């Protein structure tokens, strides 16, 4: 799983210049070719540190934000992770390098289908993708050690909080889509939920129900 050496250097340089220093996260991002997740017009910009359009009016997140969210999850190799918002599948692929099992869901079946094909092509066999409204989590697979939401909710969805193990961590952008959102880390302890504000971000909104495509 290697991709063009110059492109890789360009992306890693961009990440380092944005202050991404976590070695295991950088190694995971070095292994996963972002170009495999972007088709068509924007594919030649895959190694820039910028969000890009993907089908169904959605976006693949900016690599430095993928790095920040991955780092904030503080993954361990035995973790079972839920990602809400498969999109292109890139973030799930990065997570797959650092945890045991990744469940990822998107409300658009087209995105899930495309992402599954890329996971298969790259041999990422520890990711399972479903079409579902992720605001309800995945009750059949719960509880999770880590939950990552890659679409902005007004508040961390209750069913997701309920599906987080004690000792678990959830990272979620919170706020309305047309205003500044904040990336929040929720840690569940015996005595309840603890919240840290990580930084301002901009994500597409978490939308209820399944998409048309
Ligand atoms: N993690 C993605 C980027 C996600 S963009 C990547 O690496 O490319 C946000 C995604 O969240 C979109 O694909 C959108 O369809 C999805 N989404 C929005 N609301 C959702 C919901 N309620 N359930 C599941 N997916 C949702």
From TrEMBL:
Locations listed in the record: Cytoplasm
A GO term, aspect molecular function: protein-L-isoaspartate (D-aspartate) O-methyltransferase activity
InterPro entries attached to this UniProt entry: PCMT, SAM-dependent_MTases_sf
Major localisation: cytoplasm
Record-annotated active site: 61
SUPFAM superfamilies: S-adenosyl-L-methionine-dependent methyltransferases
UniProt catalytic activity: [protein]-L-isoaspartate + S-adenosyl-L-methionine = [protein]-L-isoaspartate alpha-methyl ester + S-adenosyl-L-homocysteine
Record keywords: Cytoplasm, Methyltransferase, S-adenosyl-L-methionine, Transferase
EC assignment: 2.1.1.77
Source species, domain of life: Bacteria
GO BP term, example: protein repair
GO CC annotation: cytoplasm
Role played: Catalyzes the methyl esterification of L-isoaspartyl residues in peptides and proteins that result from spontaneous decomposition of normal L-aspartyl and L-asparaginyl residues. It plays a role in the repair and/or degradation of damaged proteins.
Protein family per UniProt: Belongs to the methyltransferase superfamily. L-isoaspartyl/D-aspartyl protein methyltransferase family.
Cited HAMAP family: PIMT
Name listed for the protein in its UniProt record: Protein-L-isoaspartate O-methyltransferase
């Amino acid at each position: 799983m290697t991709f063009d050496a110059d492109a890789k250097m360009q992306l890693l340089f961009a990440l380092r210049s944005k202050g991404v220093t976590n070695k295991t996260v950088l190694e995971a991002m070095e292994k996963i070719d972002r170009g495999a997740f972007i088709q068509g017009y924007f594919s030649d910009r895959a190694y820039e540190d910028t969000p890009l359009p993907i089908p169904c009016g959605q976006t693949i997140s900016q690599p430095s934000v993928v790095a920040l969210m991955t780092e904030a999850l503080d993954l361990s190799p035995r973790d079972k992770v839920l990602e809400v918002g498969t999109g292109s599948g890139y973030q799930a692929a990065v997570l797959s390098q650092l945890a045991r099992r990744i469940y990822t869901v998107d409300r658009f079946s087209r995105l899930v289908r495309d992402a599954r094909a890329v996971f298969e092509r790259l041999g990422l066999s520890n990711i399972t993708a479903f079409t579902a409204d992720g605001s309800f989590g995945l009750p059949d697979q719960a509880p999770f050690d880590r939950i990552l939401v890659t679409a902005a909710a007004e508040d961390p969805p209750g069913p997701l909080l309920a599906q987080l193990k004690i000792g678990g961590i959830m990272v979620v952008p919170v706020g309305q889509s047309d205003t500044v959102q904040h990336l929040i880390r929720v840690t569940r302890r015996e005595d309840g939920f603890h919240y840290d504000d990580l930084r301002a971000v901009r994500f597409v909104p978490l939308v209820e129900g399944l998409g048309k495509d």
